[in-house]
Amino acid sequence: MNGLIALVGSGEYLSVMNDVDSYLLDSLNLNGRKPRVVCLPTAAGQEGDGSVNRWSNMGIEHFSTLGADVNALKIINRESANDPKWEPFLENADLIYFSGGDPGYLYETMNGSRAWNAAKRAWERGAIYAGCSAGAMILAHQIPRFRLTGTVEGFGIVPAKFIVPHFDAIPAMFRPIAMALLGQLKNDDRMIGVDENTALIGKPGGEWTVMGRSKAHIFTREGEQVYESGQTITLG
């Protein structure tokens, strides 16, 4: 990925994230052309049409208000992820946004699909990846399964073993699981926690900036470092 990556803890398509999403759109060098945004409700693909349509409509309304040309693609399962009709939308996008849902299902649906490969072509030329909750979690090396046991493979694009969204609002029943993930970190591993209504924005190997209402948390075997909105982090 040669463009920015936004790891969003929560708040996709809500006005609380207007400043963050405006920053992402403003970072594009489009010579006056409207940015092309693609919204993907894939992580909610098992939740039915009501949920898929809600995320799609929210994405269209949100980014249209911010001045973009927006399409929400109904990529909700492996069959639709391999439908060639979506490829032009993805490979020509300037920003591709994955909203929340089930991260394991999102990874399984997209991994190796025609849709993912088309999106990769956009990211290689500098398009932005934005992922909220499940959309952020899949970029780590491993994806925690909070409602089940263990972890599953992630894309490993961000230098983190785990990415945990909603970090400041994890229900009490899941906190022991989140803390148990720390025990799986090896010497060079890290876990990233992103609070709600907050984003961590940057590129692998470079500087990342915390934006939004709250904080980002970086855990290693040595302990935790907390970064406020506006502060930068280097993730090697």
What are the SSEs and their pairings?
Layout: E1 5-8, H1 18-26, E2 36-40, H2 49-65, E3 69-72, H3 78-81, H4 87-91, E4 95-98, H5 103-110, H6 114-124, E5 128-132, H7 134-137, E6 142-144, E7 151-153, E8 162-164, H8 175-182, E9 191-194, E10 198-202, E11 207-212, E12 215-220, E13 223-228, E14 232-234
Parallel strand pairs: 1-5, 2-3, 2-4, 4-5, 8-9
Antiparallel strand pairs: 1-10, 6-7, 9-12, 10-11, 11-14, 12-13
Please explain how this structure is put together.
The protein has 236 residues and is of the alpha/beta class. It has one domain (5-234): Class I glutamine amidotransferase (GATase) domain (Rossmann fold). The chain has helices at 18-26, 49-65, 78-81, 87-91, 103-110, 114-124, 134-137, 175-182; strands at 5-8, 36-40, 69-72, 95-98, 128-132, 142-144, 151-153, 162-164, 191-194, 198-202, 207-212, 215-220, 223-228, 232-234. The strands form three sheets. It has an eight-stranded mixed sheet, sandwiched between helices. Strand 6 and strand 7 (151-153) form a beta hairpin. The model has no long low-confidence stretch (mean pLDDT 94).
